[in-house]
Amino acid sequence: MSRYGCVVEWSRGEAPFRGGQYSRAHDWRFDGGAVVRGSSSPHSVRVPWSDPAAVDPEEALVAATSSCHMLWFLSLAAEQGYVVDGYSDAAEAQMGPIGFGRQGILAVVLHPQVTFSGPRAPDDAAVRQLHEVAHERCYIANSLRSEVRVEGGWRLADAR
């Protein structure tokens, strides 16, 4: 069994805590040394108590889902002898009511755009199969209760 971790650090500073007028900005520290600035979403807590330049937890969930899917897709494509030149995904999530007065992510939609080159070009069915298997193997998608859809496209690199 693998374990994954992150240290989340927040400090109030001089701001008053009562009344909710404190910053929600904080740091995510990862074992490799990366530090990511986090905050509540401005959709949840208005500026100046949230930091719109920081990553909010909902965005992080979408990014983790997209990244996991992409990494599996690239691995599978390489195993099958395809050459991927580029992969871009404008992933998004939809938040809404999940019952009992609670809110949650209702769906994550991936929109990958993949560029292939090389002597072996896939067809639509092959790309669809790569995405299906990547989705089945994605640890993050397997961990979510909400729907995760892949609605992407692909193309061949320009012949030069």
In the CATH scheme, the class of the largest domain would be Alpha Beta
- What structural class do the secondary elements suggest? alpha/beta
- Count every helix, treating DSSP H or I runs of 4 or more residues as helices: 3
Number of domain modules? 2
Helix content: 25-40%
Q: What is the rounded distance between the termini?
A: 47 Å
Q: Report the uncertain regions.
A: none
How large a portion of the residues is in β-strands, by DSSP E?
A: 25-35%
- Listing every helix as H and every strand as E from the N terminus to the C terminus, the arrangement reads EEEHEEEEHHEE
Shape: elongated
Largest sheet: 3 strands, antiparallel
Rg on CA atoms, Å = 19 Å
The appropriate CATH architecture of the largest domain is 2-Layer Sandwich
Report the strand count: 9
CATH homology group of the largest domain: K homology (KH) domain
In the sheet with the most strands, the strands line up as 1-2-3
Protein name: OsmC family protein
InterPro entries: KH_dom-like_a/b, OsmC/Ohr_fam, OsmC/Ohrsf, OsmC_Ohr_Peroxiredoxin
Organism: Ramlibacter monticola
Question: Can you give keywords for this protein?
Answer:
single chain, OsmC family protein, 9 strands, 160 residues, three-stranded antiparallel beta sheet, 2 domains, elongated, alpha/beta
What's the layout of helices and strands?
Blueprint: E1 7-9, E2 26-29, E3 35-38, H1 57-79, E4 83-89, E5 92-99, E6 102-110, E7 112-117, H2 124-137, H3 139-143, E8 147-150, E9 153-156
Parallel strand pairs: 6-8, 7-9
Antiparallel strand pairs: 1-2, 2-3, 4-7, 5-6
Helix pairs in contact: 1-2
Pfam family, one: OsmC
Protein name: OsmC family protein
Organism: Ramlibacter monticola
